[in-house]
Design goal:
Blueprint (H helix, E strand, L loop, with lengths): L1 H19 L6 H6 L6 H12 L2 H14 L5 H24 L5 H8 L2 H33 L6 H50 L2 H10 L10 H17 L4 H8 L4 H18 L1 H13 L1 H8 L12 H9 L2 H38 L5 H25 L4 H8 L1 H6 L1 H9 L5 H23 L9 H19 L20
Helix pairs in contact: 1-8, 1-16, 3-8, 3-11, 3-12, 3-16, 4-13, 4-18, 5-10, 5-11, 5-12, 6-7, 7-8, 7-16, 7-17, 7-18, 7-21, 8-13, 8-16, 8-17, 11-12, 13-14, 16-17, 20-22, 21-22
């Protein structure tokens, strides 16, 4: 019965997405929803797209294992990223009226920088989308009591998300995400209320966590602090040059919506991300034997810590509560998966394919984007099936390449008038070479892991930009002024 109800929910989600697909008439509709989305929908998309499998399953397991230090990158770093993007980056980027973030790099620098950084952005999505596909496999496996393997669950889940994302693009993502956000918030609040009652109340849960030192950072050594800083900046800064965040900003109906929809969505994400973490910790109070067995399990393939929250619901809550929880969990995963499937796909079609076929028509761009969604879905599903990395680690690793290669060219391109093509080229080259070299040396244990390689890459990228600006000529085009009039102002 539980599986049947979940299937009905999936069919309804597909129907909503296909209904929204009727609004797609050209590539701009597919990529930016015609820049007509209201505040509530933009806020919902920012919140729900980032409120993914790692937020519910990955972060909760990380807190149970490592305490508050396990939350440095997500939700803290992720929330800071969204609010920073809204307050600092949304206004100048919205005014440029672009289709993709790669378009910014072409307009500010040249096609070579556009191509290189677009590929970096595309690669960064492999881990993030794969994390959602992995979680879908876990959910279908648990719902079917093992009848559906995790592998087949990944394939089924990827197919469902692909179906409505393929045809409707950003319109389908926007409408389904708005509905899914309502399910997420209502469902998780209800389940948390039930779990809180079973655990003896908020005071009991917090006292339990405090007694186990989950909030204690006083014993941290300098190595720990450096590691936390690297994790925080990788998520907070490395996530900024990302197409999915930019796409939500760029789909807004006007500049004010772009700024505050993103900022408030980031704030909502940061606060509400604490709900599944609290919910998972109640499991340790309610059923410590189950939690400790999963925490100490050596079965990496089944990712045991990510099963804590679903296992709690399946073993200690009523069938009605199970339906609500898994409906909310599927909403969480699908809302993130659909948005993160679309972002790299349109980046590839707009900034990679059009570099080689500049005469591509709007209709051709639309169909190339759809074809790329299919190919990218197959690629990330394969990656999810073959990887033994946890959901939390997949997401943490996703932004290393954009932190090292794309962050400095984006920031300098917007806010530094003297920036030039040489500076951008050196920033990309220095950043990526340093990061890749550091990863290789770290893998063979030739260097210490006190500071992660992507942080060295960020520093090298900044040095490269400074050298290029000092040695080269300023670019012809100035960055977008903060007080310039929007390209297509709407009231």
């Amino acid at each position: 019965m539980l599986l049947a109800l979940v299937v009905v929910y999936l069919v309804i989600s597909i129907g909503i997405g296909l209904f929204a697909a009727a609004k797609v008439h050209n590539a701009r509709d597919y990529i930016t929803a015609g820049r007509h989305l209201p505040m509530a929908v933009v806020l919902a998309m920012v919140f729900a797209t980032w409120f993914g499998a790692e937020t519910v399953l990955g972060n909760s397991g990380a807190f149970l294992k490592d305490g508050v230090s396990g939350l440095i990158s997500d939700p803290l770093g992720a929330g800071v990223c969204l609010m920073l993007f809204g307050l600092v980056f949304a206004r100048p980027l919205y005014r440029m009226n672009l289709l993709t973030l790669g378009d910014f790099f072409r307009r500010r620098y040249n096609r070579g920088i556009e191509l290189a950084l677009s590929i970096c952005i595309i690669v960064s999505y492999l881990g993030w989308v794969a994390a959602q596909i992995t979680a879908l496999g876990l959910v279908f496996n648990m719902l079917s009591d093992g009848i559906i393997s995790e592998g087949w669950g990944m394939v089924i889940g990827a197919g469902v998300v692909l179906l409505y994302t393929l045809l409707g693009g950003m319109w389908s993502v926007a409408v389904t995400t708005f509905v899914q956000m309502i399910v997420i918030v209502a469902g998780l609040f209800y389940v948390a209320w039930i779990a809180n009652d079973k655990a003896g109340g908020v005071a009991t849960v917090f006292a339990h966590a405090s007694n186990l030192g989950k909030f204690d950072l006083s014993g941290a050594e300098w190595r720990d602090i450096l590691a936390w800083g690297a994790a925080f900046f990788t998520m907070a800064l490395g996530s900024i040059p990302q197409q999915d965040v930019f796409q939500r900003v760029n789909s807004s109906g006007n500049e004010k919506i772009a700024v505050w929809g993103t900022t408030l969505g980031g704030l909502a994400y940061t606060l509400f991300a604490l709900v599944p973490i609290y919910l998972a910790y109640t499991a340790l109070v309610i059923d410590p034997d189950m939690v400790n067995a999963l925490l100490t399990s050596t079965d990496i393939a089944s990712e045991p810590t990510q099963r804590i929250l679903p296992t709690l619901v399946m073993t200690h809550m009523s069938p009605a509560t199970q339906v609500i929880f898994f409906g909310a969990l599927l909403s969480v995963i699908m809302s993130t998966a659909s948005g993160t499937l679309l972002a790299p796909s349109v980046t590839f079609s707009e900034n990679v394919m059009k570099s080689f076929f500049p005469q591509m028509t709007d209709n051709q761009l639309l169909w190339v984007s759809r074809a790329t969604v299919v190919v990218f879905t197959m690629l990330v599903t394969w990656y999810a099936l073959t990887s033994d990395t946890t959901i939390h680690q997949m997401v943490e690793n996703a932004y290393r390449i954009t932190l090292a290669g794309a962050f400095v060219p984006l920031v300098a391109g917007i806010f530094w008038k003297r920036v030039n093509e040489l500076g951008a080229a050196l920033a990309v080259t220095f950043g990526l070479v340093t990061w890749v070299g550091g990863e290789i040396l770290l893998h063979i244990e030739a260097i210490s892991d006190v500071i992660e390689p992507q942080v060295y890459g960020l520093i090298a990228s900044a040095i490269g930009m400074a050298i290029g600006v000092a040695c080269g000529r300023p670019a012809q085009e100035s960055p977008p002024a903060s007080n310039a009039a929007p390209a297509n102002a709407q009231t």
